[in-house]
Amino acid sequence: MDGVLIIDKSPDMTSHDVVARVRHILHERRIGHSGTLDPFATGVLVVLVGRATRLAQFLTAADKEYEAIIRLGFATDTGDRTGKPIDGPPLPAKRNWTDADVEKALLVLTGDIEQVPPMYSAKKLQGRKLYELARRGETVHRDPIKVCIHEFHAIKTAGEMIKDNFDGTFDLAARVVCSSGTYVRTLAEDLGKRLGVGAHLAELRRTRVGPFPLTHAISLDDLKVRFAEEALGTLLVSPTAALSHMPLLHLTDDDERRARHGMEVSVEETEWTDGTQVRMCNKDDELIAIGAFDSKQRRLHPHVVLANAEQA
Predict the structure, then answer these.
(1) Residue 57 and residue 12: Cα distance in Å, rounded?
(2) Which residue among 14, 19, 40, 44 has the highest number of C-beta atoms inside a 10 angstrom radius?
(3) Closest residue by Cα to residue 219 from 25, 64, 51, 78
(4) Is residue 192 assigned to a domain?
(5) Residue 198 lies in a domain
(6) Do 69 and 175 belong to one domain?
(7) Distances (CA, A) of 312 to 254, 255, 285, 307
(8) Do 84 and 131 share a domain, yes or no?
(9) pLDDT digits (tens), the chain, 312 positions
(10) In Å, how far from its chain's centre is CA 277?
(11) Are 217 and 299 in a shared domain?
C-alpha cells in the first residue's frame, strides 16, 4: 500500500485532520501530505501513503491552481473570511471601479512578484510558526518572498465580472495558477490595495496540484467505502506515476540490486545536467530509488531509496 491519494478536502478541516482520517481509514501509520491547505479552503490535497511519504520533498514544489472568490469591501486580520474585519478604506457606497480597472490590477499582479507572508500562516520564524505569534497578538517583520503568478484572471458569471452583494461589498471570482509558496490570501489583499479598497478571500478551492487535478480527487467518505470494497488499488497513484515530471532510467537486474542498497549506478550517454533528479525503476516500472546525476562520473547516486534491499 504505497502511493499517492488525491483527496478532495472538505471545509473546516486542517490538512493534519485529513492525514489523521486517512490513517484511521487505511489502518496505515505512514501517511503524510505534500502541501498544506487552509482549514476554510477545499479541494486537492495530495496525500502520501506508505513508503511514498519519502517523496514529499519532490512534490511540494509543484505549481498550484485555484478558484477563488475575492470579496472587495473590507480586509480581515487573517486575509480570509475566518478573520475579523480590520480598519481600512471605508466600504464603497457603490462600485467605483470599472472592469478595465480590475483587469489592469490583475495584470499587474501576474508574473514574478514579491509577497509578504501573512502573519496567520504556517511559515516559521526562528522556529515559531507565524500564526502562533499572531494568536498572541504579536506582529513581526517578514521578509518578502518571490513567487510566480502564471495566471490571474476574472471568471465572469452571466457576463458580469463583479457581483454586487448589496451590502457595500462586491465579489470577484478568479482563477489563479501559481508557483508553490504563493499565498492567495495575500494576492486578494494586494488586489484590493490596487483598487483602493480592503479585500479578503471569501472562498478558496484548489483545483490542481502539479499533475493532479480535482477531477481525480475523492472525498474521505468515498475513500472509506472504496477501502471497504478492497478497491484502494484503483485510487492509488503509483510512486513512479506521481513523479512523471522526472526523467526515468530503467535498471538492469544488477543495477537494481545496487540501487536497493543505495549504491551508485553507471549511466551511458545522456543529456542530463549535473544534479538532475532521476527516477530509478526496475523492468516492471517499480520505483526503486530517486537518484542524483553526477555529470563528471556519469553516475546516479541514490539518495532516496523506496524499495527494500532484502527483496533484491
Answers:
(1) 26
(2) 44
(3) 25
(4) no
(5) no
(6) yes
(7) 9, 10, 15, 9
(8) yes
(9) 899 999 999 998 999 999 999 999 999 999 999 988 999 999 999 999 999 999 999 998 899 999 999 999 999 999 999 999 987 776 666 677 889 999 999 999 999 999 988 877 777 777 778 777 778 787 888 889 999 999 999 999 888 999 999 988 999 999 999 999 999 999 999 999 999 999 999 999 999 999 999 999 999 999 999 999 999 989 999 999 999 999 999 999 999 999 999 999 999 878 899 999 999 999 999 999 999 999 999 999 999 999 876 555
(10) 20
(11) no
**With contact defined as beta carbons under 8 Å apart, do 266 and 280 qualify?**
no
DSSP result, 4-46: EEEEEEPTT--HHHHHHHHHHHHT-S-EEESS---TT-EEEEE
Residue keyed to cell 479578503: 200
Please list the active-site residues.
38
Cα(173)–Cα(155) distance, rounded to whole angstroms?
A: 5
The range of the structural domain enclosing residue 293 comes to 246-311
Give how far Cα 181 sits from Cα of 33, 147, 261, Å. 15, 7, 34
- Closest C-alpha among 205, 211, 187, 262 to residue 34: 211
Are 147 and 178 contained in the same domain?
Answer: yes
Residue 239 and residue 281 in contact, taking contact as beta carbons nearer than 8 Å: no
- CATH classification of the domain holding 135: 3.30.2350.10
Are 184 and 204 in contact by the 8 Å Cβ rule? The answer is yes
